[in-house]
Amino acid sequence: MGFWDALLGRSRPVEPDLDRLFGLPSAAITLQAAVGLAPTGAGSVCFATIEGGAFTRVRQEVLALLDADSGRNGTPVEFSRDAYGYSWLLSRRAPDDLPALVNDLHAVNTALRDSGFGPQLLCSLVAFRTTGQRPAALVYLYKRGTFYPFAPLPGRKRDNRLELQVRAALKEELHVEPELGRWFPLWGAPGL
Description:
Layout: H1 3-8, H2 24-34, E1 38-48, H3 53-67, E2 78-81, E3 86-92, H4 98-117, E4 121-129, E5 135-141, E6 146-150, E7 152-153, E8 157-158, H5 160-170
Antiparallel strand pairs: 1-3, 1-4, 2-3, 4-5, 5-6, 7-8
Helix pairs in contact: 3-4
Pfam families: PspAB
InterPro entries: PspAB-like
């Protein structure tokens, strides 16, 4: 950062570190022990909708890469678009195979970034369930390089208590987003 940037209060954006995703399997063990959250085997990547031949080619490459994995057992990768116009790629694995799911999410993010679509990447999430079968997720914010919990309740409400418990349990394991205002709700996210 230069002198003028410091003087004017400007900061450089945080470089995303996709390798932070590999911390999720150990964080899941902590979450199960401390908060009672268990992975569901679902995870998704959200990105701004991209049109055109270049993206079609990348999409086919991603599908071929993920479908070539013999551990998938015929479970297809699903693409969808939400009500806000964002695109989602949903991957499913066995609930006890979180490392494979993380590899899927990392591969998708890397393929999009390496193909020049990094600016369109928004977030990735891994779905969990409470012991009472309520959904929850750990969300990785691509542009911030941080994680945050999201625990939706019926009626478009959030379980703030559970989210704060997750933050406390993971403060030593993952780089948790410190600004609560950036803990965006992901209503209706695929896999959640």
